[in-house]
Amino acid sequence: GNSISVIDITTNQIVETLTVADNPTNLAFDGSYLWVMSSGNTLYDENWSVIGHTAGALTAINAASFAVEKTFNFIEGEHPSSLIAYAGELYFKNGASIYKQSVDAAALSPLELTSGNYYGQITFYNEHIYATDALDFSQNGLVHKYTVNGDLVDSYQVGIIPGNFAF
User: Fold this and answer.
1) How many domains, in total, are found in the chain?
2) Is residue 165 part of a domain?
3) Rg (CA), the chain
4) Is position 145 within any domain?
């Protein structure tokens, strides 16, 4: 899909449906904007051969008016995922790296914080970014803990194929 809906929780009715880029996967709120991370899609022919991609995008929706105010498109073939909003910055995964982008930016201009073999979601807790590494998908994986500037604080061994968090 390529839409998100605003639902009135008192009536359970859809108030607004907004079009965003293909495959919206994550939402983050920065106090003014609802940010939507869309990962884009891989396109296949009838034999399941890859024939192209739709671009992933980062979309800013004004929380008061529900107007789409910014859309930052990624390069075709990139499939960004995860999204965190903290202290005027957005943090997300794209490929093998974690990036940050100012919420005030006029264009997509992310700063690479760290690169690795991250699998699953990244999350934010207690002013730190947590990312999972499935290693070879057959042994115990790792959780890496980073500062908001991308400095590694610690790594923890966890179970096989870690993919998400709950704090």
Assistant:
1) 1
2) no
3) 17
4) no
